[in-house]
Amino acid sequence: xxxxxxxxxxxxxxxxxxxxxxxxxxxxxxxxxxxxxxxxxxxxxxxxxxxxxxxxxxxxxxxxxxx
Length: 67
Known about the structure:
The protein is an all-alpha fold. Helix content is 69%, strand content 0%.
């Protein structure tokens, strides 16, 4: 139904979403915050999540394009 490369497609989607979401959280802070929310997300954790997401997305993209 989805083809033989469904796992690579899922890893690409999840990795890209992780990288994009973490980068967006660093760039654009929410306008309304509760008292329990942080003023901005932890930078080290966000950069680590961006790196992991990019590695996963690039690896999946390479797997999909190589054959």
